[in-house]
Amino acid sequence: MIPRLCSNMWRRLKERGSDFTMEVSFMEIYREKVRDLLSSASPSVSLRLREHPIHGPMVQGLTRVEVGGGGSESEGLQKLFELLWEGERRRASGTNGSNRTSSRSHAVWTIHLTHHGPLGSNASEESPTILSNHIHLVDLAGR
User: Three-state DSSP class for 129?
Assistant: First the structure.
C-alpha cells in the first residue's frame, strides 16, 4: 500500500506542476523501544519520545531523508522505495504458525510534504506560500 500511495501522490503533484519537496522517516516500536529504521547508527539505539510545545509528540533524533520533489519522478521514487525496503529489512521479525516473517514491531512510515509557491488560480505570484503536511502510515505488529 505504501509504494502505491507514494507513487500516486508523486504523480498527481507532478501533473499539477506543483513545486514540492518530499522527505520520509521510518521508525519502529519494539519492546517499548523506539528505533530509527533509516539511521546508519546502531539499531539497538533507542530514541526518546518528546512533546514539542507547538508540533506535539515527536521522536528526538529521528532521521528525515529528502527523496526529492523538483527532480525526475523515477529518481525520487526509486530513492523512496530503496529507503522503504531498507527499513523493512531492519525491522524486528520472527516466525509464527501462519507466517515465516511476521513483524514483531509497530512501524510508522511518515511522509513530510512541503509545497512551495502560490495556490489556486487567484493566488498572487508575489505572495509566496509554504504549506507543510505529514502523513503517518502505521503497520501494527501481529500475524
Answer: coil
Compute the CA torsion angle 117, 118, 124, 126 (nearest 10 deg).
-10
Signed CA dihedral, 86, 38, 32, 54: sign only: negative
Please state which of the four CATH numbers 3.40.50.2300, 3.40.850.10, 3.20.20.70, 3.40.50.11540 is assigned to the domain occupying 21-112+132-139. Answer: 3.40.850.10
Residue 123 C-alpha cell reads as: 493566488
Q: At residue 102, does pLDDT exceed 60?
A: no
Average pLDDT over residues 64-80: 79
- Cell triple for 86: 531498507
pLDDT value, residue 94:
57
61: left (phi over 0), alpha (psi -120 to 50) or beta: left
What CA–CA distances, in Å, run from 37 to 10, 65, 117, 120?
23, 11, 32, 37
Band of residue 68 on the pLDDT scale cut at 50, 70, 90? confident
Q: Give the Å distances, CA to CA, from 45 to 28, 33, 61.
A: 12, 9, 11
CA–CA distance from 76 to each of 21, 37, 72, 73, 91 (Å)? 10, 19, 6, 5, 23
At which residue does the C-alpha cell 502523513 appear? 135
